[in-house]
Amino acid sequence: MIRALAALALLAVPAAAQDRPPERPEATAPAPDADTAGPAEALPFGPPPPPVWFTLAESDADHDACRLALMVLGTRYRQEAPVTDPDIRDCGIARPVRVSEILPGVALPAEPVMRCGTALSLAIWTRDFVRPAAAHLPDAPQLQGLATGPAYVCRDRVGTGDPEPRPSEHGYGNAIDVMGFDFGQDAPLQVQPRSGDGDPAEGFQRAVQSTACLLFTTVLGPGSNAAHDDHLHLDMADRASGWRLCE
User: 171 near 113, Cβ under 8 Å?
Assistant: First the structure.
């Protein structure tokens, strides 16, 4: 929950990621009268359910708690107008934020747009795990930025092998892709397959990828599938019984 993450930000203690609100209810048709039932297509039906982005909208209290936590963490962001898609009604964000600096001195040059809870998980992960792991690299470089994708993108999932297309959490502002880590050198440390390299870069990437599952419910990266060989996909998908997908 957002309030739990907000408390985590204030206490500086890592904890589990925010739960996503329940899935939207499915519309159901009323049972026909046995004496009057006609063709199936003529049965009455109710109004369509609300779009997914609307069902994920935070309450005023949760949104205020999230914004307070971001302020305490030193995240630089600005609130944006609600985001929707004219072609796919489920895509959108009720209360988006555009983040330019996830922690003081750690820039997000792409200024991704996402839900506040996603930004809060990213900030806590960066503070509690990415920065400490970077301190163990040679010469203990200072983390100066994260190379990311745009976060909000209305599209289907990729690389999952699903027989039928399924909406991506990016379409709800629930996901962020991290492509690399900027330490103020000539080029950022890129996310890439490193299995067997046996160097500090491999240890750093393994550490940040595995610890991300403490704040996010889905973590995909090198080793999960070819579509995620060049970035870490971090999202806040709701899963039954708190189960997490960490690959």
Answer: no
As given in the structure block, the two tokens for residue 23 are: 């899935």
The pTM assigned to this predicted structure is 0.81
Integer angstrom CA distances of residue 21 from 18, 58, 120, 151, 238: 9, 9, 16, 19, 7
* Residue 195 DSSP label: T
Least confident range of 5-9, 37-41, 44-48: 37-41
Question: What pLDDT, in 10s, does the model give residues 110-130?
Answer: 999 999 999 999 999 999 999
Q: Where are the domains of the chain?
A: 49-246
Q: Cα–Cα distances in Å, from 113 out to 21, 157, 166?
A: 20, 18, 21
Gap between the terminal Cα atoms of the chain: 23
Q: Which residue spans within the chain are E strands per DSSP?
A: 76-79, 83-84, 92-93, 96-103, 106-107, 113-115, 145-148, 175-182, 189-190, 218-220, 232-235, 245-246
Q: How far is CA 106 from the centre of its chain?
A: 18
In DSSP notation, 56-97 reads TPPPHHHHHHHHHHHHHHT-EEEE---EE-SS-TT-EESSEE
Report how far apart, in Å, the C-alpha atoms of 57 and of each of 7, 19, 22 are.
20, 13, 11
**Cα–Cα distance between 130 and 205 in angstroms, integer?**
9
**Torsion angles phi and psi, residue 232, rounded to 5:** -100, 120
